[in-house]
Amino acid sequence: GESVGLHLPTLSVQEGDNSIINCAYSNSASDYFIWYKQESGKGPQFIIDIRSNMDKRQGQRVTVLLNKTVKHLSLQIAATQPGDSAVYFCAETITNDYKLSFGAGTTVTVRA
Amino acid sequence: EAQVTQNPRYLITVTGKKLTVTCSQNMNHEYMSWYRQDPGLGLRQIYYSMNVEVTDKGDVPEGYKVSRKEKRNFPLILESPSPNQTSLYFCASSPRVRSREQYFGPGTRLTVT
C-alpha cells in the first residue's frame, strides 16, 4: 500500500537555529497528517497535526506546512534547543479509517 | 498519573515459545493499538481495537494475536515467536476512535533467538 516517507534520515542543527524536517506522502486520500517526537528510550509523543484542507498550522515553537500539490509535509522548529534532539515521525490517516501510518523517521541532533 | 504501561520492558526468548506482552492504560481510552518499530521502517501497526471485544488487523498482523476483554487492557500474544519478530514493540491508546493524538507506552524490546 501507499506509505508516508521522509526525505532525510538525519539532520544536524546548531542550537538556536531553526530546524526543518521534511516528509513526502503518497496517499492522496489521507486527510490528516501528524508529527510525533520520540526521545531516546521512550515512546513517541504527539506534537501537532494538520488537516488536509489547511496549508499551515502553528503550535508552540513548531509550525507544520502542508503542500498537497507536491504531497509534501514539513515540521519547522524555531530556535532549536538540546531537548529537541529526537527522532521525528510524520504520520497520516484517513478520517473514516482507524489506522495510523508512520514514516521511517528523521533523527535530529542539536549541536551545542 | 495518566499513562500506558507495558510489561515486560525487555524479553529474550527462543523460537516457538509462546509469550504475551501486556498493555494497560488508566485513562479510560476507547482506542488501543500495537506497533512494532524496526530500523529504517518507522512504526508499523500490528493490531488495533476500537473498544471492548472489537479488534482489527493493522498493516503487519501475521504471527500476532490480540484480545480486548476489558477496556484498560490490550495484550499482544505471539503464539510461536520467530526471529523475524525481534523488534521494539509499542502499545498506544487514544481517547476517541479517530483521534490523531495517541499516547504511547515505554516500549518492549523483544529478542527471539
Can you walk me through this structure?
The complex is a heterodimer of chains A (112) and B (113). Chain A is an all-beta fold. Chain A is 0% helix and 54% strand. In chain A, a hairpin with a 6-residue loop joins β4 and β5. The N and C termini of chain A lie far apart (41 Å). Chain B has 113 residues and is an all-beta fold. The relative contact order of chain B is 0.33. The interface between A and B is medium-sized, with 24 and 27 residues.
List strands and helices in order, with pairings.
The complex is a heterodimer of chains A (112) and B (113).
Chain A: E1 4-6, E2 10-14, E3 19-25, E4 32-38, E5 45-51, E6 56-58, E7 62-67, E8 72-77, E9 86-93, E10 101-102, E11 106-111
Parallel strand pairs in A: 2-11
Antiparallel strand pairs in A: 1-3, 3-8, 4-5, 4-9, 6-7, 7-8, 9-10, 9-11
Chain B: E1 4-7, E2 10-13, E3 19-25, E4 31-38, E5 42-51, E6 54-57, E7 65-66, E8 76-78, E9 87-94, E10 103-104, E11 108-112
Parallel strand pairs in B: 2-11
Antiparallel strand pairs in B: 1-3, 3-8, 4-5, 4-9, 5-6, 7-8, 9-10, 9-11
Question: Would you kindly provide a brief summary of this structure?
Answer:
The complex is a heterodimer of chains A (112) and B (113). Chain A is mainly beta. In chain A, 0% of the residues lie in helices and 54% in strands.
Features of the shown structure:
heterodimer; A: mainly beta; six-stranded mixed sheet; five-stranded antiparallel sheet; globular; B: 113 residues; mainly beta; seven-stranded mixed sheet; four-stranded antiparallel sheet; 0% helix
Using only CA atoms, what is the Rg of chain A? 13 Å
The largest interface is:
A-B, 24 and 27 residues
Q: Are there runs of chain B of 5+ residues with pLDDT below 50, and where?
A: none
Beta-strand segment tally of chain B? 11
Topology of chain B as a string of helices (H) and strands (E)? EEEEEEEEEEE
CA distance, first residue to last residue of chain A: 41 Å
* Major sheet summary line of chain A: 6 strands, mixed
The biggest sheet of chain B amounts to: 7 strands, mixed
Average pLDDT confidence of chain B is: 95
Overall 3D shape of chain A: globular
Uncertain spans of chain A, ≥5 residues at pLDDT below 50? none
Please state roughly what percent of the residues of chain B sit in beta strands, choosing from under 5%, 5-15%, 15-25%, 25-35%, 35-45% or over 45%.
Answer: over 45%
Oligomer: heterodimer
Structural shape of chain B = globular
Structure annotation, total helices of chain A: 0
Rg of chain B to the nearest angstrom?
13 Å
The proportion of residues forming helix of chain A, as a percent range, comes to under 10%
Helix % of chain B is: under 10%
Topology pattern of chain A, helix = H, strand = E: EEEEEEEEEEE
Estimated structural class of chain B: mainly beta
Strand content of chain A: over 45%
